[in-house]
Fold each of these.
Amino acid sequence: MDRVPFQQKILSENERTANALRARFHEHGILCLNMVSSPGSGKTSLLERTLESFAPSERVALLTGDIQTDNDAVRLRRFGFPVKQITTGGTCHLDARMIERGLADWRLEDIELLLIENVGNLVCPSSYDLGEAAKIVVLSVTEGEDKPLKYPAIFFKSELMVLNKMDLLPHVPFVVESAEENARRVHPAMEIVRSSSLTLEGAQEWLRWLDHRRRSARDLRAVSV
Amino acid sequence: MDRVPFQQKILSENERTANALRARFHEHGILCLNMVSSPGSGKTSLLERTLESFAPSERVALLTGDIQTDNDAVRLRRFGFPVKQITTGGTCHLDARMIERGLADWRLEDIELLLIENVGNLVCPSSYDLGEAAKIVVLSVTEGEDKPLKYPAIFFKSELMVLNKMDLLPHVPFVVESAEENARRVHPAMEIVRSSSLTLEGAQEWLRWLDHRRRSARDLRAVSV
């Protein structure tokens, strides 16, 4: 019976840290996005294509979470932007304290877009606010159309679903419309981008979504300054 | 700082229940297997093909875990064997108490093989013993070769890796040998079956593995009776 109060305590500590981070992001006009998916849905490849598309002058930084290894940071560092690996050592999600520590030796003035790649897990990351402006859930077409119904929390809390690996569609029994309908049953306002890091399907739409959100973050800051 | 003792307490409660289950399984000559994977790796399809291959007289039962929905139980019930859905309502793994409750109205005398399909999650289920004789990890070729290194606990604790969706191999940048090498770096004695529920590649090998384990469970019981 002591399970619930204990979890509430962790969550409220996390909430406090996340809110402090959110205030700092707002103050610096930083757009922070938290990307969540199953292991192997293609978050890192999507981020590679994204970083590749940015001019070197863009003020983009990236925190990438993993249980073990710094494979993803190695892949993402090739593009010249600041990238830090957060290795959780067994923990199944990133929490706000890890983000706070990850940012400790970075100047927030140098960042306008902070991308966080969460640990590959469709369940636990949904409970941990990282101070982000929005969560993005990545679902690949190899995973089945029913995932939004089976893992509703993360789909409910995400503003955008990237339906990924569209290039594999001819080879898998997956009905795009049905997956999208399931996502919108859980979250009627869900925005959706159909994407492939191989064929670059959806790349423009994804970059437009990012750009729109970045402008909103800047405008929001301008209003409050 | 109170996080560690609390988790230890949960784990040791779980351990006690799991050991009690294991003793009951042993007493009844039941082979219990705990299948773990990412969401959408094809556990349910593999189980469908498995149940399909069994004669109606086989004493097989199945517990299937999910955050929400009873989709999997509906799919698996078609084969006429007892199937029960365990809906965790948000919890990211099955625990031994859920298995105990799931078995409450089943006669253990009627079961010889108990298959447990865990919640789709490569992280948390690795910490929860369900009283099983062995864990099986399912990895699909769409998820990338690096997953055993990134999620080592579940690969370390599993006796068998089913490398699934082999039919998609021509369409994905996945090197089977490298994935297998990674699995064996984490767990040198890992047994591996390359499998596809579409082409039935590996089906015989998987059924032979199951049969071998079932005979061992029976033999073990005969020795101790």
Amino acid sequence: MQKQIGERTLLFPNMPYVIGSANIVAKAESDGPFGTCFDTAVEDDTFGEDSFEKAECHMFEQAVKDACRSGGLAHKDLQAMLGGDLLNQIITANYAARDLQIPFLGLYGACSTMSESLLLGSILVDGSYRAPVACVACSHFSTAERQYRYPLEMGTTSPPTAQRTVTGAGCVILSDRWQNGARYRHIRIPSATIGKVIDYGIDDISNMGAAMAPAACDTILQHFRDTGRNASDYDRIVTGDLGSFGTDMLLRLCREKQIPIDDCHFDCGKEIYTTSQKYNCGGSGCGCSAVVLTGHLLPHLESGEWKRILFLATGALMSTTSNQQGETIPGIAHAVVFEHFKAGEQ
Amino acid sequence: MQKQIGERTLLFPNMPYVIGSANIVAKAESDGPFGTCFDTAVEDDTFGEDSFEKAECHMFEQAVKDACRSGGLAHKDLQAMLGGDLLNQIITANYAARDLQIPFLGLYGACSTMSESLLLGSILVDGSYRAPVACVACSHFSTAERQYRYPLEMGTTSPPTAQRTVTGAGCVILSDRWQNGARYRHIRIPSATIGKVIDYGIDDISNMGAAMAPAACDTILQHFRDTGRNASDYDRIVTGDLGSFGTDMLLRLCREKQIPIDDCHFDCGKEIYTTSQKYNCGGSGCGCSAVVLTGHLLPHLESGEWKRILFLATGALMSTTSNQQGETIPGIAHAVVFEHFKAGEQ
């Protein structure tokens, strides 16, 4: 069975089954257009913990447990967990993995983590190495602000290109079979495309969308070349958190490359807040695409309204140190295909 | 073909081929017992760059290019690169991936990164998803000191349990076939065991060995249970960077669990420096196990002196933030089996 095609695309002949998912968000996200789609929305973004870092860890754990339950499993049934977050040394994911006691593979792909975890999780399941597995990503506005930008207490204002880090965790359970009582019975993953690190020389940490758009364009282009498909083969081509400015840039780049995606493009970051919430260019953070995937995209696939989507979480690769040293901010985007299948269909 | 066994072990029926490797170290490492084994040793640990961070990135890139050459390939032939480092947001690996332009999957497993990358790289190759692939880990004394501890200029002294972060990068090339002109023709990877995050409540950031030893013990025990093997099946059971104190703790823990490994245990961190170098408990950092694997262990397997080793890079999972917030330091260890094969043997 062929398992690779073109330069960077992997085929999954056993097509891993999406059986469960869950997400948890805070108030800003539940006030947005997808507010009613999220599984859990809390008013208090400390989740009762004594630091925002512990709150983020709490969210991560709850998303995994809830996703297992929605897939008809207990979290102890998981054979592996793949995931990460934005904090230094991915402490959120590491401490959650300690508490959950699931075999753990830590990833860092900045905001591309959700598609990286789905890509690697699909390989584990498709190749019969381990199943079921959990793919997880998580971010928190308050931990990200103080690590990457300024203390919240300073009350700094942000420039028009800035995006707000989503407080949210999302988890998808992949398995090698349908599960009785599971939330989903119609979604599978037939292929994925690995991203490359692309740098257009952006060095403005308040303009992450521009840093990530070229990487998204590169992976979409490569995915089309590898598979012989184009935008019309997808109901939606979804990017993680380019925001409004980055979205404009991506659409322009794709037109320049003769692969227009205007008709089917959807950016989770651009859509997660309403304009009346005044979060400038939209949402960001690896939780952004994770909660929109699990809250908004998967239900549309499950119902059959959409037959096939291309999901690209997009990451801006930098640290405060690299930025202070004058380095530019490259981006990366991995792509994962989700398809609707009729029950029993192979 | 069976590809999983027991609770956490993966079997690789196609047994990925180790075809190339390379490493690069600085003066402290080349002054140690394995000084003559390393491929490249430099006097100037800035590598001619204007920051230690850029120097680390330079090392990472050079290790990948040299490893490809030793495997009879150009780095453009690589189908994927899996790796990471210790810096916030793994900037070393990300910027190296930008410059190398190889499809990239970023990992964070602290000092367990080398075995995590080998485990996931083996899956990509064994499952026919992508080959050849590069598995890489890298650390630098000066970048780690200033990020995790104190500015070098302070000249702080370190407690007896402390270890010195190795300045070094190591890369292993895995493929789905032997390669003409490649450095290795006798080493393959038949299986691996995923680690769990284990916490014994250690909270002393100068005693990482103690934080990691319980995780190493847990993975060794699970590997033995899953495979029905014991220490006598291995010429060496190798841990990454427990150092002398952590090694004592691991040996004691293994004896307590009735799986004594005293006769075949080898710790890269404990052995990389001589006692006359006075680096307290030895070396650490994810480069430590990566350079000892590529400089010392693989040649012994290639020659047939050793038939089978279990390689466990060991990671301490914490950040300066988590430590300041009073969190303990859990550990993780993934295990990878390397075996000697006669040429042509299946």
